[in-house]
Amino acid sequence: MNSSEFRRRGKEMVDFVADYLEGIEGRQVYPDVEPGYLRPLIPTTAPEEPDTFEDILNDVEKIIMPGAASPACTELETVMMDWLGKMLKLPEAFLAGQVGEGGGVIQGSASEATLVALLAARTKVVRRLQAASPGLTQGAIMEKLVAYSSDQAHSSVERAGLIGGVKIKAIPSDGKFAMRASALQEALERDKAEGLIPFFVVATLGTTSCCSFDNLLEVGPICTKEDVWLHIDAAYAGSSFICPEFRHLLNGVEFADSFNFNPHKWLLVNFDCSAMWVKKRTDLIGAFKLDPLYLKHGHQDSGLITDYRHWQLPLGRRFRSLKMWFVFRMYGVKGLQAYIRKHVRLAHEFEHLVHQDPRFEICAEVTLGLVCFRLKGSNKLNEDLLERINSAKKIHLVPCHLRDKFVLRLAICARTVESAHVRQAWEHIQQLATDVLRAEKD
């Protein structure tokens, strides 16, 4: 959609809202539709090719408005999470379908999803241990619980541990900045020997620092054997798994208890929209379900509905699945795949440019849309270069530390980015690098 069409469609949407407000007294306060009405009205998978805006807007009136805001808000979310799960080729166990035990829910962020998974895992292990030893108190168990993640995991994992009141231990990553089986197994055995209780592991697919991938095919079987909850955080990289050539990066997901990524990062869905799936919805519901009288309703014991308030931290929730529905239909699966592939192609173009300048080095494998690079030399040299880049305000880079190296990171993430922008950015960096090196000599 170009800016001209956006202006036209925007005006149409204002008219749509205004017409709704003008005619609101003619609409029923409570819907006539019954739980489960929506799923038969829409396809079981996302369209391969784009739909027209007119068709989507017509479907809003025909399919959504009869059940707005309930049960349409809930039911569209369930179906959209199934659509997205099928785009990723997730195992059937993660999909809600008609009778599945799993399913998806939209959280606000990957940080929130990690916390929700940790709290569910904590509740599950506490209840299991108390059932085996009724004399055990929750406090006695809690002080021994230990969770694990790679030393490359996002800080939100450590924060989840702080909020959840459990220890988080960092597993040293290998030469490719990935968590491997041997290091995890060693930590588990050491902690069990000390009387601690391992209960939760976070595997990261596409780390923030350098987009490295923990080895799921190694880590997963260990978690299964040890009866430890495995949560996968693929906040950034998860969007790429809709492309067959990148789906192998998700191999091993079948060992996980929960999986999460952010469509608002790289799948053209506006913030906030963090997609989380679980194999057993009862694990979440068991941790968060509370039913005061003022939240009870006539269908809650029918088994016909999903009460997403039991799947998350807040009680209230927005109609976030509507924007997923629009994006998936406006682009089609092929359009979204093309968008991902273009960004990866541009990242490799930038990588190639860096390789051509002997003053620079690539610091981590370029798998998706992130390139980690630096000037050969001291950390201070690269800190000075970053300061000049960001002070010039033409582009913005965020650094990281990889082991003892200060590293610059270029992320391809804008919807409208083109090859010309990548080349302009590189020429700008090269010029500033020349200035920094000249200043160092002086």
Automatic annotation (TrEMBL):
<dbReference type="GO" id="GO:0006520">
    <property type="term" value="P:amino acid metabolic process"/>
</dbReference>
<dbReference type="GO" id="GO:0005737">
    <property type="term" value="C:cytoplasm"/>
</dbReference>
<dbReference type="InterPro" id="IPR021115">
    <property type="entry name" value="Pyridoxal-P_BS"/>
</dbReference>
<keyword id="KW-0210">Decarboxylase</keyword>
<dbReference type="GO" id="GO:0042423">
    <property type="term" value="P:catecholamine biosynthetic process"/>
</dbReference>
<dbReference type="Pfam" id="PF00282">
    <property type="entry name" value="Pyridoxal_deC"/>
</dbReference>
<dbReference type="GO" id="GO:0019752">
    <property type="term" value="P:carboxylic acid metabolic process"/>
</dbReference>
<dbReference type="GO" id="GO:0042427">
    <property type="term" value="P:serotonin biosynthetic process"/>
</dbReference>
<dbReference type="GO" id="GO:0030170">
    <property type="term" value="F:pyridoxal phosphate binding"/>
</dbReference>
<dbReference type="InterPro" id="IPR015421">
    <property type="entry name" value="PyrdxlP-dep_Trfase_major"/>
</dbReference>
<feature type="modified residue" description="N6-(pyridoxal phosphate)lysine">
    <location>
        <position position="265"/>
    </location>
</feature>
<comment type="similarity">
    <text>Belongs to the group II decarboxylase family.</text>
</comment>
<comment type="pathway">
    <text>Catecholamine biosynthesis; dopamine biosynthesis; dopamine from L-tyrosine: step 2/2.</text>
</comment>
<dbReference type="GO" id="GO:0004058">
    <property type="term" value="F:aromatic-L-amino-acid decarboxylase activity"/>
</dbReference>
<keyword id="KW-0456">Lyase</keyword>
<protein>
    <recommendedName>
        <fullName>Aromatic-L-amino-acid decarboxylase</fullName>
        <ecNumber>4.1.1.28</ecNumber>
    </recommendedName>
</protein>
<dbReference type="InterPro" id="IPR015422">
    <property type="entry name" value="PyrdxlP-dep_Trfase_small"/>
</dbReference>
<dbReference type="InterPro" id="IPR015424">
    <property type="entry name" value="PyrdxlP-dep_Trfase"/>
</dbReference>
<comment type="subunit">
    <text>Homodimer.</text>
</comment>
<dbReference type="InterPro" id="IPR002129">
    <property type="entry name" value="PyrdxlP-dep_de-COase"/>
</dbReference>
<keyword id="KW-0663">Pyridoxal phosphate</keyword>
<dbReference type="InterPro" id="IPR010977">
    <property type="entry name" value="Aromatic_deC"/>
</dbReference>
<keyword id="KW-0127">Catecholamine biosynthesis</keyword>
